[in-house]
Specification:
With 325 residues, the protein is α/β, with parallel strands linked by helices. The protein has 2 domains: 86 residues, MurE/MurF, N-terminal domain (Udp-n-acetylmuramoylalanyl-d-glutamate--2,6- Diaminopimelate Ligase, Chain: A, domain 1); 151 residues, UDP N-Acetylglucosamine Acyltransferase, domain 1 (3 Solenoid). The chain has 4 helices and 38 strands. A 12-stranded mixed beta sheet has the order 6-9-12-15-18-23-26-29-32-35-37-38. β3, α2 and β4 form a beta-alpha-beta unit. α1 crosses α3. The longest helix has 20 residues. It is flat. The protein starts with a helix and ends with a helix.
């Protein structure tokens, strides 16, 4: 119990010497499992849970059953994440190179790295300490991976520099050609893409997402940012620190996002615009112009959330009046 409370960063009201075996949701947890409540809509489940311990906000402590130990903290979800990792730690790298991997003699691989079956690592690539490269992944010429990076199965990385603890999920494509071409009377002329992709420390790129290399400058994903599955990042895009980009978002070339920007699923952004620090872009929004820091945008074309909801309410009233007539 003490180890769990310490990992969560929470406080236990009284001393307990209980032993736990795992974690589970409120509705399925048993006496030897730890659970949590972060969303008050599930408070009814808290009152009847069989969990042996529950991580809760101080406001919910009184609703924890007597059969459970309350681990009290201001941010229960963060505590849950830390406790879940305690029971389910990430698999450590198993140093070595699988016999079926194809490694160029000019590649540099730290002895502590784990290179899986059928991997291809090209000339000049550098694989840092503790990295794990999944089956059939391709690391292109000159790519650099920092410490403790993970590359999922069938992912490919080219023309890129990765910081420490970067996680590229299976099937992701990093550093492919951006979408650039000149229009002529006889057709299209492809413009060579000359830049790189820079993934800073603690970035995660979701499964089957794509991050294009820059056209002349670099495409940059700031430290701590998270890209969900099926995200498209165009050439020369720059994301600040700790941005969140949800599934099926498309960001056009040369758009700049500040720090801590959140982008909802299926939103799209035109190229060459700026999104200010802390802005929130709602799901399916279409952003075609600059967005101020801290703004909350909805709709297509995107507009401030208050204006969007005012228009929705007006349309509802007009529709209701027509039905009455």
């Amino acid at each position: 119990m003490a180890e769990i409370a310490n990992a969560a960063g929470g406080v236990v009201a009284s001393e307990h010497e209980r032993v736990f075996e795992g974690v589970a949701p409120l509705q399925t947890a048993g006496p030897q499992q730890v659970s949590f409540l972060d969303n008050r809509r599930y408070a009814a489940l808290l009152e009847v849970t069989r969990a042996g311990a529950v991580i809760v906000h101080p406001d919910m402590q009184s609703r924890v059953p007597q059969s459970a130990v309350a681990i009290v903290m201001a941010d229960p979800y963060t505590g849950w994440a830390k406790v879940a990792k305690l029971f389910h730690p990430a698999r450590a790298a198993s140093p070595g190179i699988h016999p079926s991997a194809v490694i160029d003699e000019a590649a540099t691989i730290d002895p502590s790295a784990d290179i899986g079956p059928l991997c291809v690592i090209e000339a000049g690539a550098e694989i840092g300490p503790g990295c794990r490269i999944g089956p059939a992944a391709v690391i292109g010429s000159g790519v650099v991976l920092g410490r403790d990076c993970r590359v999922g199965a069938h992912a490919s990385i080219s023309h890129a520099l990765l910081g420490d603890r970067v996680y590229v999920y299976p099937g992701a494509r990093i550093g492919q050609e951006g979408f650039g071409f000149a229009v002529t009377k006889s057709g299209f002329v492809t413009v060579p893409q000359l830049g790189r992709v820079m993934l800073h420390d603690d970035v995660e790129v979701g499964a089957n997402s794509t991050v294009d290399r820059g056209s002349a400058g670099d495409t940059v994903i700031g430290a701590g940012s998270r890209l969900d599955n099926l995200v498209q990042i165009g050439h020369n895009v720059v994301l600040g620190r700790c941005c969140i980009v949800v599934a099926q978002v498309g960001i056009s070339g040369s758009t700049i996002l500040g720090d801590f920007v959140q982008v909802g699923g299926q939103a799209a952004m035109a190229g060459h615009i700026r999104i200010g620090d802390g802005a929130q872009i709602g799901a399916q929004a279409g952003v075609i112009s600059d967005v101020e820091a801290g703004a909350r945008m909805l709709g297509s074309p995107a507009q401030p959330s208050r204006e969007f909801f005012r228009q929705v309410a007006t349309l509802k009233r007009m529709s209701a009046d027509r039905l009455k007539d």
